[in-house]
Amino acid sequence: MDPNMKELQEALVDIETDAEQVLLARHQLVENDKIRNANREALTALRKQARTTKTSVPSPFEVIMKEMEGSSGKQLIKEVCPTCGEHDPKEHTWLMFPGSDIFARVPFHVAHTVLEKDQERLDIDTKKLQSFVKDKSLVIAEKGALAGRFGADTVKSLVSLTDTPKSGREGRELVQGPEVKYQLG
């Protein structure tokens, strides 16, 4: 076989391998997103059951200050779970464990703790996969595989984009960009 053809074949195999890894990572991102959405829905249902929101439960500092006003014999710190609130944390609820078809009757506090930990793990995995997809896309673009669609510089600028909101004068408002109008044709 001609040496040039062999080099071309190796380059194509290399590009296809990288592209397949990107597709697999994107598929995993979609699966993670489905699980994250299901977890978020479950946590919302648990909060509704406990009649709490993320901000409705007083902070531990507020609880300490209220208890210090009235008595000196009570415990100083009363830990209040932001999800449980005043709900009985020992009340049992059904939970299907992530990645299995097994249902278990577990205490309310354990159920939402498991879901919150799983949500944190999925967030970390998603960020890792997103950075992997960006890196591999950049590698593929530098090899010239996307030359017909995008230039390597264009892909590099897209990959290096970050999500940082611009803060307003008081730090509370987001600055609105100029109005963009699209024209077809």
From TrEMBL:
Keywords: Chaperone, Cytoplasm
Region (Disordered): 163-185
GO cellular component terms attached to this protein's record: cytoplasm
InterPro entries xrefs: PDRG1
Subcellular locations according to the entry: Cytoplasm
Keyword Chaperone assigned: yes
CDD domains (UniProt xref): PDRG1 (cd22860)
Principal subcellular localisation of the protein: cytoplasm
Entries under PANTHER family matching the protein: P53 AND DNA DAMAGE-REGULATED PROTEIN, P53 AND DNA DAMAGE-REGULATED PROTEIN 1
Protein's name according to its UniProt entry: P53 and DNA damage-regulated protein 1
Organism: Panicum virgatum
